[in-house]
Amino acid sequence: MAVAADKKSVVIIGGGPAGLTAAWELVKDGGAAKYDVTVLEATREFGGISRTVKHNGNRMDIGGHRFFSKDDRVMDWWKNIMPLQGAPSYDDKKLGRHHDLEAGGPDPEKTDVVMLKRHRVSRIFWNQHFLDYPISLSPSLFKALGFKLTMKAGFSYLWSMVHKLPEDNLENFYINRFGRQLYSMFFEGYTAKVWGRTPSKISADWGAQRVRGLSVISVLKNAVQKMMPKKRDSKDVETSLIEEFWYPKLGPGQLWEIVESQVLNNGGKVITDANVVELRQKADGGIASVIYEDADGKRVELEADDFISSMPVKDLVNAIDDAAQEDNKEKGSASSEVVPAEMKRIANGLPYRDFVTVGLLVKHLRLENTTDMKTLGNPPIVPDCWIYVQDPGYKVGRIQIFNNWSPYLVKDVDDTVWVGLEYFCEEGDEFWNLSDEEATEFAIKELTRMRVINGSQDVLDSHREHVKKAYPAYFDTYDQMPELIDYLDSFGNLYCVGRNGQHRYNNQDHSMVSAMEAVDNISTGRADKKNVWSVNTEKSYHEVK
């Protein structure tokens, strides 16, 4: 790859939020004059798990993505790519809803490049009851629990306030914040469903990242503050309690497709169907080049000055080792340094959780809209963005209602409901290997048992998606990640970013910030990478400001 002498070459592995953020940060504002940037994406789609799947005129958001961050850099970044709506969206108009519209912003009814403002509604399905998420002190909660369980939960929580457990696992983390009774009802079974492990076997780090400062006290405080007349800034609310978010008109993948186009238009290169299989080392210990296989299986080598990787840590370490092994085989000697056995053991022991999403297009839902929120549909559908299924009697973990994310995700939004059922599993297990027809039939039966739909006669269409390595997991060799980080940082020109690149359950905004920090290091010449790895670990982020 010929690069001008006055330009630095940067190869970015992965076209998800982290990789595309890094690419855009390097080439924007004339950056292509200083950097020769190439993005290698193993698929033909952009956004990673934040992509949008299109099926027969309907769109699926894989995993559900609220566009919200406590980091103003990220909020401004998104708004510069897709400006906020300046006029009511289709459902806003039809339902007479009002948002704080952006002065001079685009009209969602006239253009697709627009970010919508959405109201978050999430509920928990438990024991045939729908409860508010986060848990609120509502009559429906007390009715669902009954007097005896309510009292048990209350005394259990009071006990947890004075009898703290060592937070050396996720189970104790939850019990310290909610009490053993609420933990056993709402966290224990659901966590095992999501991760395939009991919470006692999972690191408390996961709770620190995902639950943040959420506890009974914070839920009570949030409930009281909501009754106050003064409107709070969303940055002053715990992440788990955020009630308003932004959302691209055509789903999260739309934003990343736009970013990819802007990278190309500003001088960057993007190569799809580029599966990275080897990273070759330099004599001084850095990375010299990457080798990828294209759609035809042809191997192509790219040299560069710096490398930004969002590929799974496990695959990255094996790619470094495979290159060294291949080089030694060609030379007939062990001159190239292979990955130490201990580092390979840690990397290959890092666990992931995969999932399957089944989309069902249905005529209507049996669920009645009992809220004071007006909603689309005939009859009106419930307002939920997603429903957490914390009842152990069902395999489905979460149900999305795409109509409520954006009316533009659904071809016939007035007369059909487009739902997505998320099933957590492992690649190659029994559920993963079901046929499309079998998975669809399973999903229909679960929704019918839940009394969400009447049965297969209500289903008009379906689509199934496999999602590999969706969630980096916090058990097995995870506790030895610091050793692996030190090893990877020894390659001075290699930067690990993003959810899988850092084996950390980052939100989309955290993945982006890790990429921004990596680009800042490249541009300033900063040698250590603590700033890159510390994203989403600072305690100050987790606490109410």
Automatic annotation (TrEMBL):
InterPro entries: FAD/NAD-bd_sf. It comes from Bifidobacterium commune. This is Protoporphyrinogen oxidase. GO terms for molecular function: flavin adenine dinucleotide binding; UDP-galactopyranose mutase activity. Pfam families: NAD_binding_8. One of its GO terms (cellular component) is cytosol.
